[in-house]
Amino acid sequence: MYDMGTRERALSLVAQGRSLNSVSKETGVSRAAIRSWQIRIEPLDRNRAWPCPRCCDTPEGPSDPAAYAYLLGLYLGDGCISHLRRGVYFLRIACADAWPGLIDACAEAMQILRPANKVFRVQRQGCQYVTCYSKHWPCLFPQHGPGKKHERTIALEPWQQTAVEAHPWEFVRGLIHSDGCRITNWTTRLVAGERKRYEYPRYFFTNKSTDIVRLFIEALDSVGVDWKQANSRNISVARKASVALMDAHVGPKY
Q1: What is the pLDDT of residues 162-197, one digit of tens each?
Q2: I need a surface site. Which of 32, 54, 65, 172 has the fewest CB within 10 A?
Q3: DSSP 3-state assignment of 114?
Q4: Is 107 within 8 Å of 68 (Cβ atoms)?
Q5: What percent of the chain shows pLDDT beyond 90?
């Protein structure tokens, strides 16, 4: 939990026209948390029940579609929903220990969506499972079902598609943070009789599900990122302008 002074300072920087990225880097507060404070700055009372937007008399989309789009990307890559007992489920996202910032971002997005439920982290060898119990996870992630994701159809509901279309970069970030990476490739060229080494960055995304790969490609198309498909499960972004776009909105894992 952040104190009120931290919240007010972050919001004052945003009010000056600063981007969420720059405010996040200066304050050490995640973009997801800052977005949630723009809706409500006061700390939430965790003792009260928190309604599910999908279980209302008139079902709605999530209250924070940007946080939802990010968590949806993480869930499609490295997440699962399991039934515990008496209608209670737990959402679990596997995050590598090598990326502590990613673990924090995942936990914060999960907390924003279910603010009255405790989010906790379970340490395993080389990774942490970011986990939260709620009977509403199947409502929020209707892709939940028996079997592996790549062995069944994965399609977004209209309200999910609306959230992704409104915040495609957050969706791309979630997918890259789960099943993608930013690497530096190199090659050699003969220049004036001398062989020189050149390095260039590129992004990769890999998933066994052709449906999830398609969702990733559609999101890239919507934000103007050029990509190439090496095979049914591998997508590469290597063109300089597109890598620059990805760096501005996604960046390497941290």
Answers
A1: 999 999 999 999 999 999 999 998 778 788 888 888
A2: 54
A3: coil
A4: no
A5: 56
For residues 246 and 181, give the distance between their C-alpha atoms in angstroms, rounded to a whole number.
11
29-63 pLDDT, tens digit each: 888 888 877 766 555 444 445 677 777 777 888 98
Cβ within 8 Å of residue 253, ≥6 positions away: 98, 99, 101, 102, 176, 177, 181, 182
Positive or negative, the Cα torsion across 153, 225, 35, 98? positive
Residues in the chain: 254
Residue type, 133: Y
User: Rounded to whole angstroms, how far apart are CA atoms 59 and 233?
Assistant: 34
Predicted structure pTM score: 0.77
Q: Which residues pair with 127 in a beta bridge?
A: 96, 124
End-to-end distance of the chain based on CA atoms, in angstroms? Answer: 21
What's the rounded Cα separation, in Å, for the pair 108 and 113?
Answer: 9
**φ and ψ at residue 253, rounded to 5 degrees:** -65, 150
Whether 121 and 131 have beta carbons less than 8 Å apart is answered as yes
Q: Domains in the chain, ordered, with CATH?
A: 1-44 (no CATH), 176-249 (3.10.28.10)
